[in-house]
Amino acid sequence: MDSADFADRLRAGEKLVGAWSMLSEPVAAEVLADEGLDFLVLDGEHSENTVGDLADLTRAVDAVESETAPVIRAPSSDRAAIRRLLDLGPAGIVIPQIESVTEASAAVRATQYPPAGNRGVAGGRAAGYGTDLAAYVDDANRTVATILQIETTGALSDLEEIVALDGLDAIFVGPADLSAQLGVFGDFESEPFRAALDRIVSEANAADLPVGTLATSPESVHRRFDDWGMDFLVAGTDIGFLRAGVADYQGAVESAAADSP
């Protein structure tokens, strides 16, 4: 998928479904992309992935003839980290652990070329190693999606100002971190979590901003869309798919062995 297609589909509020890639193995990313996901988030925060690993994973997704768009999650809102990852040529970037509107604004500006922001110009992979530099710089602010994670009480305090930021394309609710910060880790039906979630969705809708989150089972996909009001979902992780596949096969083998004479 062309990066502009992903950004435009996201902004249009399409119900997009992707997955999370934690493994630093391009084959795993290639296989997931071959399944035709709308996007694949390549993790740079809670994984062993280096910048080089993320570059190889991005190439693996791009090499597949499918609609899957590579999206990278940065390790933090650090401007230098964001700049290096954007130069790899992803269709979007997810920035975690936003604590305030000041941090959010700085993070968004780091994803935008001047005059809208302060992203540095370089002829990396995103710009065809320099051959498409002028065209890329001209289009990137529109075609590369910027997504901020809302998962802290600080971000909740500044939520109205954050969702109003120019250059922000979507927000992503981090349910584990948000519930932990609210003192109800993992209890997504608790009153504090649901109140925070409802407020996030309400503020995002008022700002005409798509909002997404993580779902870890087929059943929760339906609940996240229908009950939580999400616009896009990360529906599982490569490690989760691997573990579930092994468990299914192991159960089938044990059942067959027990039935054998």
Task: Describe what is shown at a glance.
The protein is α/β, with parallel strands linked by helices and 261 residues long.
Description:
The protein has 261 residues and is α/β, with parallel strands linked by helices. Helices cover 48% and strands 16% of the residues. The protein has an 8-stranded parallel barrel with strand order 1-2-3-4-5-6-7-8, surrounded by 9 helices. Helix 2 packs parallel to helix 3. The longest helix is centred in the last third of the chain and has 22 residues. The radius of gyration is 19 Å and the shape is globular.
Based on the model shown, name its key terms.
12 helices, alpha/beta, 48% helix, 8-stranded parallel beta barrel, 261 residues, 16% strand
Q: Can you tell me the residue ranges where pLDDT is under 50 for at least 5 consecutive residues?
A: none
Distance between the termini: 52 Å
Q: How much strand content do the residues show?
A: 15-25%
Shape: globular
Query: Over all CA atoms, what is the radius of gyration?
Result: 19 Å
Structural class: alpha/beta
